[in-house]
């Protein structure tokens, strides 16, 4: 599927004249053409858009109903060569009933008709004076404009792309305790359209917006909402032309209300992402036993491939772009981390913590979590044992930052140089200390872990792990070295978010001197510091070896959360990072991501406990179950 699951959706509110069908149809044609020019796949008009919603007792006039049918016929003829499914609101007289309907049309044909279920008859609404509910009849097919078409509980499914399955409801249906869209979604609809005429009251717009967000989130669907505009009759009500396109609990696009001209909003929605979420969500699947039967109507629509994506692609999906939201996220994560660590301390009845501090981001974050936890428990900070263990690659900058930060905080700072112990171990195992290979590096990592574990035993303490989610995903740790601890507080925090967490503490919770040290740590290149440097400077930079962490976090997010294919990830990464990395660079690091993710699963199979803070976790006891020997050929084979 070379369009990668993206569907282009539009919601339109055309100008209208109440009960003037010809005028309304002409305005709708303009919107249809505009949507067509923009390669739209689904277009949604408001409730009773052909006639106008506020016709009142004129709905009892054959002249209006006949003219509405003629207008519908006109639109069918106009759109017969357009590769677009269009939903039009129309009053339809069937037998002795009058229904308020969503009419789905495609290439000059009516695919099906979905009448309104809940007919409001309270406050300013009195629709039952004219309209019947879908529940008032057993009609399943109607004869309209020379053809029999499906009527009632219907979903529309694209044969070429079955994930594009559309359910429809009308206005009040969304406000009901159990909206009909709930049943449509359980019958496969990944896209819900709502043809609405919702008048404006104080705060009603925000409530309406939340309804769309919540329903799209509960149903794991996209929700396209189109409401009547300001040219409806204002005898007793004012309408704003509210247009919304939501997806899985978020609003992707929204218009400015109360505009005088015809409006349309267009946005790309991602049905592949929605289906990935549904596959994982057992509650959604278990709800099928509560469903009602729906009739599936097929249509054959070709979705254009590789068009310019209208959808915003966040380069840093783990990090909120809004500063206030980001601060709130950081606060929440710290609360989760400290609550988890506090519980482990209380359960083990240990009064001390042991942390290896290096002057790097991860160990700094772990230290800050430990400090916050001890303050929460009213434990003295001197019972946090911070150990700096200089080795062959330790630089003056990281060493000095470590010493100064621990002194500012008031921890029990200890220094244990590991060089002699590592040289002795090299001799014991017959390794030439001049060969700077993986053995040279891992001996240092394991020596440091041994020191931490042994001091924890000696002092009656608990070793706090420092590795983050990005390192866990890539296996960027030494097995039974820094890979191991007694509680890993950072294990589900991605590297791109670690920076903001440390920055948040620097700005909000630290005195000036400690805050300045944290800022310098933030500006220090990420490095394991295991190889000798040049005049004490950092020469071994992690991102030069395995690639930019911002790319790997992007890959991880879309790979784990949505099961996105390598080609889709490559495509959207190219959009998100178009001004920073070439396609060749992104592809290079994406291939490395897959190789490392698959080959390093054996490390994840035995990682320590640690708190889950976000929707993505690689704990073998919770979110991620994977054999250590799975092949990556199917993923790399896409390149």
TrEMBL record:
Recorded metabolic or biological pathway in which this protein acts: Cofactor biosynthesis; NAD(+) biosynthesis; NAD(+) from deamido-NAD(+) (L-Gln route): step 1/1
Residues that, per the record, bind ATP: 356-363, 466
Residues noted as binding deamido-NAD(+) in the record, renumbered to the chain: 442, 471, 476-479, 603
UniProt keyword terms in alphabetical order: ATP-binding, Ligase, NAD, Nucleotide-binding
GO biological process: NAD+ biosynthetic process
InterPro entries membership: C-N_Hydrolase, C-N_Hydrolase_sf, Gln-dep_NAD_synthase, NAD+_synth_C, NAD/GMP_synthase, NAD_synthase, Rossmann-like_a/b/a_fold
GO cellular component: cytoplasm
Enzyme class of the recorded protein, top EC level: ligase
Binding site for L-glutamine: 122, 198, 204
Pfam families, alphabetized: CN_hydrolase (PF00795), NAD_synthase (PF02540)
CN hydrolase domain span: 7-271
GO molecular function terms attached to this record: ATP binding; glutaminase activity; NAD+ synthase (glutamine-hydrolyzing) activity; NAD+ synthase activity
Swiss-Prot/TrEMBL catalytic activity: deamido-NAD(+) + L-glutamine + ATP + H2O = L-glutamate + AMP + diphosphate + NAD(+) + H(+)
Enzyme Commission identifier(s): 6.3.5.1
Active-site annotation: 47, 116, 171
UniProt function note: Catalyzes the ATP-dependent amidation of deamido-NAD to form NAD. Uses L-glutamine as a nitrogen source.
Family per record: Belongs to the NAD synthetase family.
Name by which UniProt lists this protein: Glutamine-dependent NAD(+) synthetase
Source organism per UniProt: Caloramator quimbayensis
Encoding gene, per UniProt annotation: nadE
């Amino acid at each position: 599927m070379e369009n990668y699951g993206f569907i282009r959706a539009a919601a339109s509110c055309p100008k209208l004249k109440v009960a003037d069908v010809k005028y309304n149809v002409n305005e709708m044609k303009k919107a249809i053409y505009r949507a067509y020019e923009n390669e739209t796949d689904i277009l949604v008009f408001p409730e009773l858009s052909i006639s106008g919603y506020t016709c009142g007792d004129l709905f009892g006039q054959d002249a209006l109903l006949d003219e509405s049918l003629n207008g519908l016929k006109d639109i069918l003829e106009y759109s017969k060569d357009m590769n677009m499914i269009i939903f039009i609101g129309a009053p339809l007289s069937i037998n002795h009933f009058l229904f308020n309907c969503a009419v789905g049309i495609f290439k000059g044909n009516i695919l099906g008709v979905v009448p309104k279920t809940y007919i409001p008859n309270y406050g300013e609404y009195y629709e039952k004076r004219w309209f019947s509910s879908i529940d008032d009849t057993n009609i399943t097919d109607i004869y309209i404009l020379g053809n029999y078409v499906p009527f009632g509980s219907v979903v529309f499914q694209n044969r070429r792309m079955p994930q594009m399955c559309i359910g429809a409801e009308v206005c009040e249906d969304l406000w009901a305790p159990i909206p009909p869209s709930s049943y449509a979604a359980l019958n496969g609809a990944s896209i819900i359209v709502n043809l609405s005429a919702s008048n404006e009251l104080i705060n009603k717009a925000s409530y309406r917006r939340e309804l769309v967000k919540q329903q799209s989130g509960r149903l794991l669907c996209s929700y396209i909402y189109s409401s009547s505009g300001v040219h409806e009759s204002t005898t007793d009500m004012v309408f704003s032309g509210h247009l919304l396109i939501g997806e899985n609990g978020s609003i992707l696009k929204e218009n400015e209300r109360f505009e005088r001209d015809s409006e349309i909003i267009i946005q790309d929605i991602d049905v592949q992402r929605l289906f990935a979420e549904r596959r994982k969500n057992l509650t959604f699947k278990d709800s099928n036993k509560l469903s009602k039967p729906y009739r599936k109507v097929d249509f054959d629509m070709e979705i254009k491939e590789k068009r310019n994506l209208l959808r915003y692609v966040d380069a840093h999906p783990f990090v909120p772009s809004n500063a206030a939201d980001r601060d709130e996220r950081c606060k929440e994560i710290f609360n989760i981390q400290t609550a988890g660590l506090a519980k482990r301390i209380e359960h083990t009845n240990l009064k001390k913590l042991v942390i290896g501090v290096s002057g790097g981001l991860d160990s700094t974050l772990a230290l800050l979590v430990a400090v916050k936890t001890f303050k929460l428990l009213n434990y003295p900070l001197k019972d946090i044992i911070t150990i700096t263990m200089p080795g062959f690659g330790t630089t003056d900058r990281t060493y000095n930052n470590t010493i100064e930060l621990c002194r500012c905080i008031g921890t029990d700072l200890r220094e244990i140089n590991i060089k002699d112990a590592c040289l002795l171990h090299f001799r014991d195992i017959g390794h030439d200390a001049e060969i700077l290979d993986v053995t040279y590096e891992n001996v240092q990592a394991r020596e440091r872990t041994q020191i931490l574990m042994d001091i924890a035993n000696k002092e009656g303490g608990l070793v706090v792990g420092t590795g983050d989610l990005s390192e866990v995903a890539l296996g960027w740790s030494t097995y039974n070295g820094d890979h191991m601890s007694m509680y890993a507080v950072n294990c589900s925090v991605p590297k791109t978010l670690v920076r903001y967490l440390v920055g948040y503490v620097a700005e909000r919770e630290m005195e000036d001197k400690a805050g300045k040290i944290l800022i310098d740590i933030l500006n220090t290149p990420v490095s394991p510091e295991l190889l000798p440097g040049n005049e004490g400077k950092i020469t071994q930079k992690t991102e030069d070896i395995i690639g930019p962490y911002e790319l790997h976090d992007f890959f991880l997010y879309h790979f784990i959360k949505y099961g996105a294919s390598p080609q889709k990830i490559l495509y959207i990464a190219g959009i998100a990072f178009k001004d920073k990395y070439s396609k060749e660079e992104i592809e290079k690091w994406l291939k490395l991501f897959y190789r490392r993710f698959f080959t390093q699963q054996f490390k994840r199979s035995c990682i320590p406990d640690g708190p889950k803070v976000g929707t993505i976790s690689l704990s073998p006891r919770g979110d991620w179950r994977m054999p250590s020997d799975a092949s990556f050929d199917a993923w790399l084979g896409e390149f």
